[in-house]
Amino acid sequence: STILYNHPPIQKVVVVGGTHGNEYTGVWCIKALERQLQQESSLLSTSYPNLQIETLLANPKAHYENKRFIDVDLNRQFRTEELISFQNGEDEEETEFAKEERLRAQEINELLGPKFHEEQYPQTCVIVDLHTTTSNMGICLIVPEGDVLMIQAAAYVSYKCGYHHDDDEVRILVHSILDRDQRPNLSSIARHGFTVEVGPVPQGVLRHDAVEKTERVLHYFLEYLELLHPKNNGDNGDISSVQTMLNKWYPGGQLPVYKSADARKKGQLCGRIRWPCDPENPNFPLYIVHKSLQDQDFRKIKKGDALFVDLDGNIIPYSGSHGDEVYLIFVNEGGYYYSSSGTGIGVAVKRIIGIMDGMIVEQDESSHSVVS
Amino acid sequence: NTDGQTHLNRVEMNTRQLLVGLTILPFLSDMASANVPVGPPPECPALHKVIVVGGTHGNEYTGVWCIKALARRSDELAESFPSLNIETLLSHPEAHMANKRFIDADLNREFTEEKLVGAKDRHPTVESLRAQELNKLLGPKLGSKHPQTDVIVDLHTTTSNMGTCLIVPEGDVPMVRAAAYVAHKCGGEKGEARILVHSMPRNQRPDVKSIARHGLTIEVGPVPQGVLRHDAVEKTEKALHFFLEYLDLLNKDKAGVINKLKEWYSGGKVPVYRSAKASAPGEMSGKIQWPSDPENPNFPQVLVHKSIQDRDFHKIKKGDPLFIDLNGKAIPYSGSHGEEVYLMFVNEGGYYYSSSGTGISVSILRKVRLDDGMVEE
C-alpha cells in the first residue's frame, strides 16, 4: 500500500519545551538542541538536512517561576473556537483580566500557526511537544487518532526504541478528537502534533535518564521525518523506504495502542476518575491515590478495587464509573491536582489502530468500552 | 495516719537523694573539664508539649496531609500518649496555598540567631515575617525564657531517594536517643531508616525545629513536590508514631526505654550520617554545588549524572561521574569534600534554589554516643 500526501513534504519542525513551566526536562532538551543546531558540524545539523528544525520555549513566564502555569494550563488553550474568540475580543471578561496563557496562546498561534485559516496552512508542519509526568508512564508517545503521519511516526519510533533499548517501555496513547479544531493542546497548532511524555520525573527536577529517553525518542522521530523526504526515496516517491520498514515491522498493518477515555468537559484531552478537593484549597486533594495503584500506570483496575484513601484511612473503591475494567494512566500526576488541567487519574482502554488509515479498529459489542 | 506515713516516705526519699547527690559531686567536678556538648544538658525537665509541624516547605504536601489527619485523631492520641500534649501546626500557609517551596526565601533557614535578632534591620520577606510569628507562637527560641514548646517534630519530604531519614542535632540527647529508637523500630538500614546528624550550636541552627527546646525532622523520599504518595504518608506516620511512643515512654519509664536502647545498640553507639560542615552561614550543611544557568538562577547548568541518581547514602569517590553538561560531557567528582564521601539529597528539587543551598549534600558515616549525643571522632 502507498501513502500519498496531498500537502507539501515535511519541512518545518518545531521542538517545544516548557509548555508546562515546571517540566524542566523539555527545557533542557531544547537548550541542548539549540546548541547543536548552532554548531554547523554537529551530528544534529548533518543528520536531518531536509528538515528545518527550530525550538521554542512555550511558557517562559511559568518556567521562570517553576510553575506548571501562571493562570491556566497552556496546553488546554488551543481550541480554534477559543483562539478566534479571544482574537476578536469577544470575551469581555478576558480582555480586562486576560489570563497569561490565553495571551501566550495567541502569540504561539501567530509564531507557529495560524491553526485555522481558510487560505493558508499553518507555517509549521510538525510540532513535537516535550513533556514529563510524575506518573510511572515510561516513554509515552501521544498522537491524535486520524493523523496517519503521526501514527506512523509513533509506530516507527516505538519499534526503534524497543529494538535498540530493552529497558525502554514505550507505549502509544491516542486521543480521539478527530476534528483538529477541537483539540486543545499546543501541538494541534501545526498540521501534525506529536507529544513525548516521559515519567516518572518530579516537577522542577531534571533527571539524566529522562533527558536521555526524551532525546532518544526525538532522534528517531526526526529520523522518521527525514526518511520521508522525497529526496531520500529515489525516483519513486510513492512507496517510501519508511513504508517498507513499517510493512516489515508490522505485517498486519496494526499497532496496539491505548485510547484515552473521552473527556467529559470540553477543552480537556482525556476522561478522568476524579477525586474531591479540599474545600479550603482547591489544588489539594481530599483523597490520596491508593498505594496499590501508585506507579501502576497502564495496568487494569476493576470495579471494587481500592482506588483512594481518605484522611481517616478509609479506602474508597473504584465504582466502575468508566467501565467494569479500565486501564489507568497518569496515576498521581502532579499537574492533575489542578482543575485547569483536569483533576484526577487518567483512564484508557487498549485498542488496535490501523497504521494505514490512523483509525482505531472497531471493537465488537462484547468488549469493554469507555463511557463517553 | 496515712498522711504521716507519706510524709515519712518523702523524707526518706529526700535523704536518699541527698546521699546520691553527695556521691555524684566529685564526679561532676571531673566532668567540668570534659567537652561541653553543643545541646542542652543531659538531665533536663520532662518533655510534654509536642508540636507536629507540616508544610514548612509549602509544596511538601505529605506533612500537610499528616497534620490534617492527626488533627482528626486527638482523642486517640491522648489515649495512646497520655503524658504528651500534642498539637499540630501548618508552618507556611502562604507557600502551601501557592504550592511553592517558599515565597521569597526558604523558611527553614530563617531561625539563626543572626536572622531572628537582625530581622528588624533588614527588608522584610514573607518568610522573615512568618519566622517572627512562629518564634512568638512556639518559642521564643533565644533569651532567658525557655521556649513554650518542648519538642517540635517537622515533617518533610524530598525528591531524593532517602527512604526515612531522622534528622537531629548533635548533642541533643533526648532527640538522638529518640532517633535511635525510631530508626530501630522502622527497621534500620534494611528498612531504609537512617539518622542524619547536623553539628552546630543551637543559636546557629537555621531551621524551624530549633525554636523548641528539642527538635527532630522526619524526612521521607522520594516524593515529587506538590504530590501526595500514600506510601510516603504511611512511612511518615509510622516514624511519627514511634517518636511519640518514645517521648511518652520517656515520661513513664525512662530507665526501661534507655535499657531497650542499650540492648539494640551495642556499646551504646548508634551509626549515623553526619552532614558536612556548612560552608555558608545560615546553611544546614555543606554541598557539592552545581553551576546555575546565568539566565535563570534556579535552573541548573548541569544534570546530576544517572550513575548517582537515586543512590543516596552510597559512596562516591574522587573521579567518579558526578554531573553531565549540555554538551553531554561528564564532570567527575573532584574530591572537594574528601576522597570518599556519602551523598545525600541527590537531586533534591528544593536544592535548585540558592536560598536552600544549591547542590548535592555530603556526609560521612560515624557513630553517635547514646549517653551524651555526641559524634565519636
Give the termini separation of chain A: 34 Å
Mean pLDDT of chain A: 90
Q: How much helical structure, as a percent, in the residues of chain A?
A: 25-40%
Strand count, sense and closure of the main sheet of chain B?
Answer: 11 strands, mixed
Gyration radius of chain B, in Å: 22 Å
Strand residue percentage of chain A: 15-25%
Count of strand segments of chain A: 16
Low-confidence parts of chain A: 1-7, 365-372
Total strands of chain B: the figure is 16
Report the total helices of chain A. Answer: 9
Number of helical segments with 4 or more residues of chain B: 9
Spatial separation of the terminal alpha carbons of chain B: 58 Å
Q: Specify the oligomeric state.
A: heterodimer
Largest sheet of chain A: 11 strands, mixed
What is the helix content of chain B? 25-40%
The sequence of SSEs of chain B as H and E is HEHHEHHHEEHEEHHEEEEEEEEEE
Structural key phrases:
heterodimer, A: 372 residues, alpha/beta, eleven-stranded mixed β-sheet, three-stranded antiparallel β-sheet, 26% helix, disordered N terminus, disordered C terminus, B: 377 residues, 9 helices, 16 strands, globular
Characterise the protein shown here.
The complex is a heterodimer of chains A (372) and B (377). By secondary structure, chain A is an alpha/beta fold. Chain A is 26% helix and 23% strand. In chain A, strands 1, 2, 3, 4, 5, 6, 7, 8, 12, 15 and 16 form an eleven-stranded mixed beta sheet that branches. In chain A, strands 11-13-14 form a three-stranded antiparallel beta sheet, with no helix packed on it. In chain A, strands 9-10 form a two-stranded antiparallel ribbon. In chain A, helix 7 links the parallel strand 4 and strand 5. In chain B, the strands form three sheets. In chain B, strands 1, 2, 3, 4, 5, 6, 7, 8, 12, 15 and 16 form an eleven-stranded mixed beta sheet that branches. A three-stranded antiparallel beta sheet of chain B has the order 11-13-14, with no helix packed on it. Chain B has a two-stranded antiparallel ribbon with strand order 9-10. With 377 residues, chain B is of the alpha/beta class. The chains are: A alpha/beta (372), B alpha/beta (377). Chains A and B meet through helix 1, helix 8 and strand 10 of A and helix 2, helix 8 and strand 10 of B.
